[in-house]
Specification:
The chain is an alpha/beta fold and 146 residues long. The chain has five helices and five strands, in the order βααβαβαββα. The structure holds ligand CA2.
Length: 146
């Protein structure tokens, strides 16, 4: 059981195949590898999961309680639509950092709203794959201090 969970939502398994101008050229496997290495350098283990299914993401969040000290979540398009995901985050006593590759606030108006931001510890968006690395640093620093 790893200390932290990196959870990616719908279509993020397609990274590196299209729209590199928006999402970068790295695949999800590349990003996960870099995140595991970054966490390890800080003395932490990271589990990486991805699902295209809302219910599976909700299950993973519920299971994080008692298993992980924190979660880094890119909920993909569910960010903008899912009250259920928001309720799942609110239902667990585990800090969750919301991450996005792109700057959702600089894109189409329907991406400006995040259903999950009010229940997340914080949001990091717009730095490409670096958003995940910044989130690891923020989460570990938060957990180690609390
Ligand atoms: O910027 C992000 O990280 C997003 O969470 C990515 C989502 C998008 O719906 C959010 O608004 C912002 C999209 C996931 C990836 O979609 C792809 C589309 C084309 C090619 C590869 C991935």
């Amino acid at each position: 059981m790893a200390d932290y969970l990196l959870l990616n939502g719908p279509n993020l398994n397609r990274l590196g195949q299209r729209e590199p101008d928006i999402y970068g050229a790295q695949t999800l496997a590349d990003i996960e590898k870099a995140c595991r290495a970054h966490a390890k350098a800080r003395g932490a283990d990271l589990d990486c999961r991805q699902s295209n299914h809302e219910g599976a993401l909700i299950d993973a969040l519920h299971e994080a309680e008692g298993r992980h000290k924190g979660v880094i979540l890119n909920a993909g398009a569910f960010t903008h639509t899912s009250v259920a995901l928001r309720d799942a985050i609110a239902s667990i006593d585990v800090p969750v950092i919301e991450v996005h590759l792109s700057n959702i606030h600089a894109r189409e108006p329907f991406r400006h709203q995040s259903m999950i931001a009010p229940v997340a510890l914080g949001q990091i968006a717009g730095f490409g794959a670096l958003s995940y690395i910044l989130a690891i640093d923020a989460l570990l620093s938060f957990v180690e201090k609390s």
